[in-house]
TrEMBL record:
This is Tetratricopeptide repeat-containing protein. GO terms for molecular function: ATP binding; ATP hydrolysis activity. The keyword Coiled coil applies. TPR repeats lie at residues 20-53. Keywords: ATP-binding, Coiled coil, Nucleotide-binding, TPR repeat. Belongs to the AAA ATPase family. Residues 195-332 form the AAA+ ATPase domain.
């Protein structure tokens, strides 16, 4: 909605302040434009002019709802329902508010009323709460269950911490923060530490977030489910809530299990712009599914990964959710040396000075190092095809490849530096500052 339209409407209203339909229209436009306070004001004025105006009452309740003023919203809705007991939109809003307030019994009654008025009525979020359980996910009979497993493959990773070069700090943190609590829940409880909750890995691309999550599952011989949030959002528009629920169910049934959410910021980004699209339900549901896992110590480890932690809604970082945050930095020289050794394991090599190559590759990510090795191997393959004799990979080949493939992590730090310097709430990005050697 252009601000020009709003301005013109405001002028028109000033010109004829008693014109109820005009003012109502302005209020509606403001509401659609997320200007809840202004919309509230206009709806109130309409009601001053026209006491029983149903549209204005409903609109006013909506502005309250969006401002999370739930109890006043309910007062307005009750008055409306007194006049029009079967007003579908009012009942629907009422039902949603009661769910938000956790008044499930009242919400259920209204939900039944909605179904009476319209038996074909479907609402993913509300259905999730109130439909009979057999109509939800049931792996034995439900087709959706099968779909879920088709979309998300369960895998038992063959890599473990031994396959992860360097990253000693990250491995240790994961061990202390999620593996040990899983193995010794009673001990942790005795010291007042709760097991469960999730960890969030963040850092520049290619530095091993996904790889480390997979190795974590391998380390404890757990199943690994890899979920790309963009896939969830794209594939399931309209049906996401139900699928999200099925996904968490799948994880519960496959425990021990590492449930890995990649690009998790996509879910938490731009919450305001999502408000009207139904995606905010998805976020709320995601959070409550997470809370459920955390509360029940379910042997499901939740790991999220992101390149853009600053886009993540802070609600994701509350206790029991992604409350442990780990910066996955580019590997240091020793780490690079180990990664190179891992990448060249079981490959034909001539005596290689790994240390020298590690020295020549500051800022290279694990993925960059892998790219170097791949380049060198391709080169050797071509040579072998031409000469008919297989040749081992040499120091020279690798150094040549470092000239062809440059480090890719710098750009990320350009962005991250700004967030670390200017919006480092609660020391969230202290590790980034430390890496960049910036003193606070
Ligand atoms: N510490 C490491 N040890 C061995 N290999 C590594 C390591 N870090 C990265 N790699 C290699 O680099 C590849 C890319 O890493 P990965 O996909 O985990 O990066 P990422 O941090 O998830 O990147 P993105 O942010 O782009 O998703 C891995 O598949 C692996 O082969
Ligand atoms: Mg990744």
């Amino acid at each position: 909605m252009s601000s020009e339209v709003i301005k013109q409407l405001q002028e028109a209203v000033q010109f004829s302040p008693e014109n109820v339909p005009l003012r109502l229209h302005l209020a509606q436009v403001l509401l659609q434009d997320f200007q809840y306070q202004q919309a509230e004001e206009q709806y109130r004025k309409v009601l001053e002019l026209s006491h029983d105006n149903i549209a204005a009452q409903l609109g006013l309740a909506r502005t309250f709802y969006h401002q999370q003023k739930y109890s006043v919203a309910i007062v307005v809705l009750e008055q409306l329902e007194h006049q029009e007991p079967d007003n579908f939109d009012a009942l629907l809003l009422h039902c949603r508010i009661l769910v938000k307030e956790n008044s499930m019994e009242g919400a259920r009654d209204i939900y039944q009323h909605l179904l009476q008025l319209n038996p074909g009525f479907r609402d993913e979020a509300l259905d999730g709460y109130f439909r009979a359980p057999q109509q939800q996910y049931n792996p034995a009979s439900d087709e959706d269950g099968e779909d879920i497993e088709k979309i998300f493959t369960l895998e038992k990773p063959e890599i473990n911490f031994n396959d992860v070069g360097g990253m000693e700090r990250e491995k240790q943190e994961i061990d202390l923060k999620i593996i040990k609590p899983l193995q010794f829940p009673d001990l942790y409880k005795a010291y007042g530490k709760k097991a469960g909750g999730g960890i969030l890995l963040y850092g520049p691309p290619g530095c091993g977030k996904t790889y480390l999550a997979r190795a974590t599952a391998g380390q404890i011989q757990a199943e690994f489910i890899n979920v790309g949030i963009h896939d969830v959002l794209d594939m399931w528009i309209g049906n996401s809530e139900k699928n999200l629920h099925s996904l968490f169910e799948l994880a519960r049934e496959s425990k021990p299990c590492v449930l890995f959410f990649d690009e998790v910021d996509a879910l938490g980004a731009n919450r305001t712009s999502m408000r009207n699209s139904g995606a905010s339900h998805l976020i709320n549901q995601f959070l409550s599914e997470m809370d459920g896992i955390a509360a029940n110590n379910e042997n499901v480890l939740i790991i999220g990964a992101t390149n853009a932690p600053w886009s993540l809604d802070p609600a994701f970082r509350r206790p029991g959710r992604f409350d442990r945050i780990i910066f996955v930095a580019p590997p240091d020289q020793e780490g690079r040396e180990e990664i190179l050794k891992i990448q060249l394991r079981n490959k034909p090599v001539d005596s290689i000075d790994y240390r020298a190559i590690a020295k020549a590759t500051p800022g290279y990510s694990g993925a960059d190092l892998k790219a170097i090795v791949d380049l060198a191997i391709e080169d050797k393959l071509m040579e072998a095809l031409q000469k008919g004799i297989p040749q081992p990979i040499t120091q020279k080949d690798l150094l040549k490849a470092t000239k062809l493939h440059r480090a890719t992590t710098r750009e990320w730090f350009n962005t991250a530096r700004n967030y670390a310097l200017y919006s480092n709430e609660a020391g969230l990005y202290d590790e980034v500052l430390k890496y960049l050697d910036i003193k606070k």
